[in-house]
User: What shape does this take?
Amino acid sequence: MTNPDLQVDWLKCFVAVVDAGSLSAAAPQVHRSQSAVSMQLKKLESALDCQLLIRGPRQHQLTAEGQTLLGYARRMLDLHGETLAAFHGEELTGRIRLGVPDDYAAKYLTPVLKRFAPHHGAVEIELNCQQSTALIPRVRCGDLDLALVSRDSARHGTLLFYEPMVWVGAPQFQVWRRDPLPIAVYESTSLAKRSAITSLALQGRRYRVVYNSSSLAGQIAAVESGLAVAVLTQCSAPSHLDILGSEQGLGPLEPMEVAVYRSEASRRSVAVDRLYDLMVRTLRTAAAAQDSPAPGRRRSR
Assistant: This one.
């Protein structure tokens, strides 16, 4: 019996469900109903004669076969898009209002924009750097088209990867020896602040907020000057600061769920489509390549 050909629409629906996490979240991305997306997945599984997704109550998980297919599916859809663009493509124009926190900009956004800009130079990108808690409402109300953020709910955004959080301190000051512990924090709604205070509360360790700043530069300045220790994303922790842990009486921190949020209004923009797709592909591929632990950073003794 001849195996049926894989249809592009099946693959689009499969990748959309993986990226969005559920059928209901994927349906608007492929402009289909939830039942139509489910039918496309069934056709794909029938063609390959295997189960690709385990359908949970909230989140769909890839099977081993689904994980294998995902890499091929992304490559096939990329080539399909490139082929159409080569024959029917028009120069993209317009403006994309993009948001990102300072700590994700250099490490994660720069590689995406480096790939996007050479091919779409006529698209204007307006970049807004704020904390995730400020960017997310701006996407929801349509003030921004896209935002790369630490997500505030597992039901929102498209999850890309998990970013570790770390305690940092200046080795020459050893502020972590003080009681109560002086800490530098972001604004009151910050997810990093919430993580730090929760960790200290679980340890029963006394602390005192001595420095508030909404910027990454401000947090680093507080640590470098010996005012406090701080909680930063691992990607933004400067190499000259020590990463602290149990030896300094500081407990573990929950990682951030890094996701891309997209406004409903932007779904009519081809330019936003291209940047969104590129962001998901680039950052998920990079995260998969770094699954093994990074080389150890010097820790304070």
Summary: Residues 292-301 have pLDDT under 50 and may be disordered.
